[in-house]
């Protein structure tokens, strides 16, 4: 062993190399002592006033040697006391505080020794502890199942328990770290740290010099993530009194906190509030670090050198002088002794430093460092294989205990399936969980081979794990359990997995809002097949429950999670099909309600039914209908589970019907349903004038064109909204601004009185009437109506030229951004205060782009959109349309242009003709030869519009061709009854006449009535 520092003389005495009376009033020698110990040292620790060793005597018995010392007011030794403690239980490690020693037995029990007692006493009832660490007056312990306990002084929050007692003598669980798979705990003066398996660092306690690395000097009463160390692959943390050192897998050392004695190694005495690389050690690949009270050691194994820096007044730097040192320099180890020795472990504490060695031939034998290799327990193939093979043996109770321990611990599960390929788990971030879900899938598939084992796992997860999950977990690693559990639920059948899936959904929804957003971010990045598994877990249980066609208390949590997964799917780079979320059983419920309505109507016309029977049946139907409708009302909050057809059924069968029933006797409602007379030439002005005069907008819009006698039973309205959209399109730049590079429309910035409100009212009426008004709005409008935020992608659709410039800015390298010389202005408007003087840089360009998008799509048209939105709500006075997704709402209002022309012929029916008649064959021959534009014109002639809402597409549209009986058929033109989708076709004598008459009719007959 090499030993240097304040207690060098005392250490010599412990090993019989100094005079027995040489301890009293002795000062430290500034030399490095090499001691050939007769007993094997397995561990040592140093505190302010105590040094302790675990060593084995010649008889093989384990012994703890402890040196206690007292100092005068100047910090000089007054006396020392050496004691030896024989422990019946084998010890794994120890740690020293100011004046106490914490011992860790091999079986995981924690003991404590003080100067006044030579018998170690138990600390609390902790068990299966794998690491212990002491600060000046507090202690930390970590169990193999990831539980952290703290006790002692808490004056600066060093226990991490939040506000509370200033001191506690019994260990308390640090619940805020539950779920984090930990690799190390450590403690310094009045601060503590925990290190995760993926290199995340969490600190708490005193922070007066920045020793927590959080960029400030504010104490932390609970663990806080040191975010600037993320992705650095941290493998070790060591704490001094008021400074901290961190080591990465690549051998890079970061230090932060107090630099008063140069203990940070930055050639400075300045404090550092954030981790800073020790530049002098760059490229040396440090393999171990250790912090004393005010000094730091770094071991470079490849050079066989120990570097030291910081306070050296007691010789703890090993540089043969007693001065401080602010840069790392090698410890002066005896070359004669280094040659045949392999340095394996370094230690520092108080004002002392140590290096444990072995002869080269015996290196790596017998040494035990509690800081290395004692991690949170992981579930592996070997354990699963043993459970499966021995579950029918006498070992079952032991296996049950193990299953309970593993599957009740989120930390164990989160540690078990790390993606270690190329150290990917060290890349854990908000966009990468660091977990390999394929490993979880294989593990749970193997568990499923034994139902007995799987059932036990399920019970533990349901009764212990899920209720214990923290609603405010710290760090991304604690969120892995929410990605892993769907792989377990996947192997459970729906019947046995319903209860646990419901509990899992409730646990997800218990998460605090910001943590739920973290989970949603992770969902958005996992591979498709695992994301699909998560969706199917909730979908299958929901679908099974829905077969009951009854309200179930589990619906809200299951559906809400499904809706959140759907929202995530919309943001994923690769989306799974939306029908993955649809629950087909909903249609059964809707049909059941429709049947009840039909039965109620039939009862009114059923003869010979006595009044009591009638009333009783009506009452039964009402109760059943109300139950069904309550269930359906619940569903409208979760639009992802309904396909478009079901949403339309709900909207027009229930919501709008309810409006009509509730306002049917209202005089205003009757007035709103009166026919609106419009002239084709002044249609927009007529419409706006009529709407201004209305005091109520609840009813459907009925239209009649001036000098045309067509009756509005749906077809005239379709024509009206088509002409309205065309006329508004001609009024360029008055109400709507048309972007030439996309052909899409947006609001003008002009300040009109009520045109935007009226425009919104017409659009709402179109939705209410199930009509199309194609004003060529982009998807952004419908996102805004549904309360969704807009992004650069939305601007790309509306104004691709402008958006491409912003995308170019985002794609530029740093030098390219600086060269563009852009300020925070848009069309002479400041995007931020004093924006004309703020340059766009690499750091703030994303903010600039977001502000430009917000200005173009939101702020510049805020009043116009607010008026439009108000009118839209009044035009379609129900919240049910909010069930639609933006794309669905867009199609409902603007119609589809995905024409399936062959479906029109397949669905056609005939009156007065047969499909084999020559006139019918000729008609379809002419129609087939039409251009796409002519076919669309024919569709307008037949239906009143060339764009049909979803649900009334050509695949579902049934046209009737009827015989327009006349003696001189060749003298007549075809007619269309748009309300009934009927084409009145004369029986022309030839295909040429049919083609001529049909083409003329569809291109020139734009009025309703006889002609």
TrEMBL record:
Placement of RCC repeats on the sequence: 146-198, 199-250, 251-302, 304-359
The UniProt record lists the keyword 4Fe-4S: no
Active site: 979 (glycyl thioester intermediate)
Gene3D superfamilies: Hect, E3 ligase catalytic domain (3.30.2160.10), Hect, E3 ligase catalytic domains (3.90.1750.10), Regulator of chromosome condensation 1/beta-lactamase-inhibitor protein II (2.130.10.30)
Domain spans labelled HECT: 691-1011
Keywords assigned: Repeat, Transferase, Ubl conjugation pathway
MF-aspect GO terms: transferase activity
Entry keyword annotation includes Magnesium: no
Protein name in UniProt: HECT domain-containing protein
Organism of origin: Umbra pygmaea (Eastern mudminnow)
